Amino acid sequence: MRYLDLAVIVVYLIAITAFGARFRRSQKSLKDYFLGGRTVSWWAISLSIVSAETSTLTIIGTPALAFAGNLGFLQVVCCYLLARVVICLVFIPQYFRGEMYTAYELMRRRFGEGTRRFTASTFLVVRALAEGVRVFAISIVISIVLGTGEVTSVVLITLLTLFYTFEGGMTAVIWTDVVQMCLYVTGALLSFWMILDRVPGGWAEVVRMAGPAGKFQIFDFRLELTREFFSRTYSFWAGLACGCFLATGTHGTDQLIVQRLLSARNERESKAALLSSGVVIVFQFTLFLLIGILLYVYHLKTGQPTPRPLDRVYPSFIWTQLPVGLAGIVIAAVLAAAMSNISAALNSLASTTIMDFYKPLFGRAGHDEGYYLRLARWATVGWGVVLVGIALLARNWGSVLEAGLAVISITIGALLGVFLLGILTRRASQSGAIAGMLSGFATMAYLHLATHTAWTWYVVIVTITTFSVGYLASLVLRHE
Question: What fold characterizes domain 3-396?
Fold first, then answer.
């Protein structure tokens, strides 16, 4: 047991939990609990957005992708920037017309309560599944460090995160995100230099060995319109389509990110937060992919056995090869990413539950803000229990990074399609919107079960299907 490393990790866990819980004093209303009172600076929201879309999946899964392949994943990541421009032009102006707490309030205004509940239900299901995968991912790291079983690891990290999220709401989530993002980026930079230092010959040797192996390849421009074209996960065309559509869906319709955009002081600061976060994301993914290439060369040069599955390559190196003390800092950084993502998910799931379901269905005029604030906190607890359950089921779902992205892809296309239908058209109706979403789900099931189409194409195909069928169904139903 490396007691200094363990001490660093324990101190971090206690400190960040206490830091988040101290924001309880500022929680007086649902606006405070779910939107941080709309008093948080844009730069803090920007870093919180990065932290929210970064998880242990990113930190341990991204190096594994480069270890086994190359830098091709950047084809998806770079197109996240284009998606942010689209969101600033199309979605954010809609969200700042009046006071909204969730993304799905926009669907109520455009189509009605039925579409609001349908889209909100979709979010609850897909976000719970995706976060369950992310919670399981952190158990990989904790089990390596503490030697605990997966169940103990999952419960431990969820309880600590749940505590400060329960107490401090969105304000705690954003500011702990800022601290945690600074910590895990620092940890990644330290890891990069330490791995490079362990490779005989340094960076020149990395280039000499990784270059001929194709590790530095980013773009795949092959454009043969065959079955193979749509089965290649990482090509330029799949990256362009997937990166733009997927990020537009996750950042424009998913409450996890939209909640942060709604927490900005005004529309201008919301746009600034989103655009600046894109630059940080590209840097971050590049860093983690390069770490994967360094680990590939390190294992070749030293003859070290490769841990299986490959998601264990990076955390195993940290814990077994880094100096005492430094390993604890880097592991604490990995835990930071996990906790920031879990806290974001808990708060967004609770906000959708209360604002899109409980208040419209069961809210009464006699209930004060204190009543709803207590209810919001207990909804947070309930979703914590759900995430633990899903995490335990996710142990056999393959690569944690691709499993998480694939889960998001399952429904985000249908959500994006119906949001675009509502924002870009005036003829679409509620019946057409729901028909479009159902057709999108059916298309998704067909792609997943009956074809070899890569997950990077799922969002594109399902979005187009949902929008097209929804629009046509609205015209047909209107004439009946």
Answer: Sodium/glucose cotransporter (1.20.1730)
Give the span between the Cα atoms of 234 and 74, in whole angstroms: 9
Residue 409 contacts residue 371 (beta carbons within 8 Å): no
Distance between CA atoms of residues 373 and 360, nearest Å? 16
Sorting pLDDT into bands at 50, 70 and 90, what band is 71? confident
Nearest CA among 206, 196, 203, 194 for reference residue 330:
194
Q: Sign (positive/negative) of CA torsion 444, 445, 446, 450? A: positive
Using alpha carbons, select from 75, 43, 439, 9 the residue that is nearest to residue 242: 75
Q: Quick one: which of 360, 278, 384 has its CA closest to 53?
A: 278
pLDDT at 275 over 70: yes
Please tell me the distance from the alpha carbon of residue 140 to that of residue 394, in angstroms, as a whole number. 12
Other C-beta atoms closer than 10 Å to the C-beta of 425 total 16
- Secondary structure of residue 140 in the 3-state scheme: helix
pLDDT tens across 406-448, in order?
A: 666 667 888 999 999 999 998 899 999 999 999 999 998 888 7
Q: Which are the contacts of 466, defined by CB distance < 8 A and separation ≥ 6?
A: 413, 414, 416, 417, 418, 421, 436, 437, 439, 440, 443
Terminal Cα-to-Cα distance of the chain (whole angstroms): 72
Three-class DSSP category at 391: helix
Alpha-carbon gap, residue 471 to 435, rounded angstroms: 9
Q: How far is CA 221 from CA 234, 236, 454, in A?
A: 10, 5, 16
pLDDT tens-digit series, residues 346-367: 989 999 999 999 988 887 666 7
Query: Token match 């708060």: residue?
Result: 347
Neighbours of 143 (CB within 10 A): 17
- Position 397 scores a pLDDT of 58
Domain ranges of the chain: 3-396
